[in-house]
Amino acid sequence: MEERKQLSVSDKNGILNELTRKGYTQEVVDLVKEDLDFGLSQEQTQLYLLKKLDIRQMRVQSQCIRNGYSDDVIAVIMCDGLNGYQMQIALSLELFVNGSLNIFNHQTNVDIENRFIVYVNHDT
């Protein structure tokens, strides 16, 4: 993972003022501020600002960037046609596919042709 370089306060304020001037909502400006405070670069925040995403989708992409996901993983999560809720589900399932809970990423004997399949995912 590349080293994060903090922007100066005046640089951050300039970026945030420019976003406000361009008409971005306060929610978007707050997200960018959080990302810049976290150590993301302006270029990294542009990855979601330049797309036509709603705030929920922007938060998902922000979280992917913060967690250091590869461009391929981000591309799958951010694929066209998914709304913000669906992207969040895809992001939460990543732990079960590639993370420490990947025991669920194997062949199953569950008949997925059943009329109802219930999947419960929650943090404890």
List keywords for this structure.
elongated, mainly alpha, single chain, 124 residues, 54% helix, 6 helices
Arithmetic mean of pLDDT: 84
How many strand units?
0
Quaternary state reads: single chain
Biggest pleated-sheet summary: none
Strand content: under 5%
- Cα radius of gyration in angstroms: 18 Å
Taken in chain order, the helices and strands follow as HHHHHH
Helix percent reads: 40-55%
Count of alpha/pi helices: 6
End-to-end separation: 29 Å
Poorly predicted spans: none
Number of domains: 1
Principal-axis shape: elongated
> Could you say which structural class the secondary elements and strand pairing correspond to?
mainly alpha
Helix-strand blueprint:
Blueprint: H1 9-21, H2 26-38, H3 42-49, H4 55-66, H5 71-77, H6 84-97
Task: Summarize this structure briefly.
The chain has 124 residues and is mainly α.
Describe this structure in words.
The chain is elongated and about 60 Å long. Helices cover 54% and strands 0% of the residues. It is mostly helical and 124 residues long.
